[in-house]
Structure formats: C-alpha cells, structure tokens
Amino acid sequence: MFELHKTDKNTKARRATLSTAHGPIQTPFFMPVGTTATLKSLTFEDLNDCQAQIVLSNTYHLYLRPGMEVIESFGGLHGFMNWDKPILTDSGGYQVFSLAKLRKIKEEGVEFQSHLDGSRHFFTPEKVMDIEMTLGSDMIMPLDVCAPYPCEKKEAKESVERTTQWARRTKDYFLKKQTEDKKQYLFGIIQGAIFKDLREQSAREILDIGFDAYAIGGVSVGEPVKDMFETLAWVEPLLPVKQPRYFMGIGLPDQIVKAVGMGIDMFDTCIPTRYGRHGTAFTHQGRFILRNAEHRFDQGPIEKGCECLVCQRYSRGYIRHLASINELTALRLISYHNLHFYIQLMKEIRSAVDNDNYANFQKEFLSNYGSELSENNK
After folding, report:
1. Which of 19, 292, 295, 359 is deepest in the core (most CB within 10 A)?
2. Cα(166)–Cα(189) distance, integer angstroms
3. Structure pTM?
C-alpha cells in the first residue's frame, strides 16, 4: 500500500507512493474537497486538468443527499461522479457533531437530526462502515468523536475513550465485511484536543488496534495555530514510519509546507474553493483579494509564471471586473487557479524532498509567501 522512497536529510519531509485500487498517489499530496460529490463551481474535468490525484467526499452529506440507494444504483461513488481516480471519504462524525441538531452520543453510536429537514438518524461505527463500503471509496475513516475547542479536559478524555471504543468496533466489523476484490484502506483517528497526555494516550490506543494508516483529528477546529502544530509535534514521533500520516483539515499553504517538514503525507481543505468564491486568490507571494479596486487596471495574470488556464488567458483586471459585478464566472476562475496553485505546490514539495532540499524550499517559500502561521485555519 505505502512504499516509502526517502526522507529529506534535514527535515522529516517524506516521499512515498500510496497504491490504491484506482491508481497510485504520489505523496505528500493534497485532496480537493468535494463534500457532496462535487467541488463548488468546478467540474471533475477541471480536477483532471489541474492533475489532482484524489478527491475527498463526506459520508454524512452523501448519506442524507442523494442517499445510499441512489449511489448504489450507480455502482458506487466513482460511477456516480464519473471519477476514475482515488477517493477518500470522511466518516461524517465531525459533521454530525457540528451540523446536526439535537445530537445525542450513546455507547452504541450517535443519534442526530438532519440539518436539512430535521429527520432522525442513528450512526453506529458499523453503519458508517456499511455506508463507506457502499460508496466504494479507496480510503475510509471510522466514526470518531471530535472534541470542540475550547473544551474541558474531562470532555476531551471522554472523546478519546469513545473514539477508541468505536475504533475497535470499526476494525472488527471492517475485517468481517472486507473482500479481496474491493480493497479499501481503513484509517485510525487520533483525538485528545490540546492535551498532551490525552493525545499520547489516544495514539497508543489507536496504534494498538492497528490500522492501514493514521490521521490526526480534532485539529483546525478553532484552536490557535501554535497549539495545532504542538499537537502534531506530540503525536508524530509515535506514528509508524512505513504508514501514511494524515493531518485532517489542514490548511493554508504555509501550514501545509510546515507540516510536510514535520513528517505529514496527506492534507485536505476546502480553502482553495471557499476562498475563491469570496474573491481571494493564492500565489507564492501570499494571498490577496481580487475584488479590491487596486486591480482594476492590472493587465497581468493572477500570478506571473503560473501555467494554469486562468493565468494563461485572463488578467487580474478582467477577473476583478467579473467579481465586482457578481458574475459567477469570476468565482469559478479564481477557484480554478487556487486549486491549481495547491496541486502545483505539492509537486514543488515533492521535488524538494526528492532533491534533499526541503529545508531550503520551506525557508524560501515561507519568506516569499509571508507566513500566516499565527492565523487560524478558517
């Protein structure tokens, strides 16, 4: 599944190939977020044009709409979206706790009301596995409990205990249901909020159960960025070297560059398209708001040297005009550029690791970008 090729000589940055049923993925990599089987304003042809290796979708949202009956009739999520590359699906646990109404956690699972129509549902670790097996995604996440920020240590400890209990049930059920002709890779999720002893406890317990790969969850939920990276510093030394490492929900470009240097392989965030829809573009010199009047007469591209279709064809001034008149095309163009920027950044990261030059790459990137590491990931 995971072939580790090398580790940068001056950092913990890694290069590997992650093999899946729908093709190999070069690490480190970024997963565009197609929560409801789509990226807002973009098509899967756009993802292919940008050379995206994988897409992420969400179990909670797909379960509610269009529903498993619909997706199963298409032979799974790949057929439904007409996407022939790998897919990772989140368990929907975070959405249950953040979006659902009147949720109630029990030993068996979590009862909740849909944020769409108030209908009642009950997720168990086993039911989430059934859903993700129906989806047919290549990498799947177990149902876990994400403690909010801020929270008392007692609440964080309860989330760790419940996550471990559910992880054990998930693993047992997964092994019973998994078939050789439909190989999926199951991740373990480490919780513990911002408490060092709980993070270490969660890591030990999840590793003891044993999974194909490991994710650090419960981050980017409002905590200061320094705490987010402190959490990573606690957990990373405990993770197996020869298995994938996923820092869930991260993040801004400088955060990704820093986390790669700390040994992380996988990232996801809706930031490229979300920021794009609000007129914000990412470049190697930082991010800026294209709606601002200063760009009215700018005949240059969003970023000089960028090879994306948008930068090859359209000027900042024209895109700013489209944005100022609320033309939907502007949001699509900026989102496309942002997605291309993220995927190109991961290529640059992989090249730097290949050349044992990651420390210099990281220093130069953060200097040029104008690091936002003091900011939260919103």
Report:
1. 295
2. 10
3. 0.96
Domain 2-269 listed as CATH 3.40.190.10: no
Cβ atoms of 142 and 184 closer than 8 Å = no
Relative to beta strand 280-283, strand 286-289 is: antiparallel
Question: What integer best gives the mean pLDDT of the chain?
Answer: 95
Query: CA nearest 169: which of 134, 125, 199?
Result: 125
34 Cβ contact partners less than 8 Å away, ≥ 6 residues apart: 55, 56, 57, 81
Task: Return d(Cα 54, Cα 139) in angstroms, integer.
Answer: 10
298 catalytic? Reply is: no
Gyration radius of the chain's alpha carbons: 20
Q: Which tokens is 197 given?
A: 């002893």
Instruction: Say if residues 191 and 146 touch (Cβ distance below 8 Å).
Output: yes
Q: Does the pLDDT of residue 163 top 50, yes or no?
A: yes
Q: From CA 1, how far away is CA 114, in angstroms rounded?
A: 36
* Contact indicator for 176, 135 with CB cutoff of 8 Å: no
The catalytic position among 8, 46, 90, 144 is 90
pLDDT at 118 over 60: yes
pLDDT digits (tens, 9 = 90+) for 184-197: 999 999 999 999 99
State the Cα–Cα distance between residues 304 and 162, nearest whole angstrom.
50
Distances (CA, A) of 279 to 45, 327, 328, 329, 337: 22, 11, 11, 11, 11
Laid out side by side, the sheet with 14-20 consists of: 2-7, 14-20, 23-27
Yes or no: say if 356 and 8 are a contact pair by the CB < 8 Å rule.
yes
Q: Within the chain, which residue ranges are assigned CATH 3.20.20.105?
A: 2-269
Alpha-carbon distance of 305 to 302, in angstroms, equals 9
8 an active-site residue? no
Is the distance from CB of 193 to CB of 218 less than 8 angstroms? yes
Q: Which of 46, 138, 144, 268 is catalytic?
A: 268
DSSP output for 193-222: TT-HHHHHHHHHHHHHH--SEEEE-S-SSS
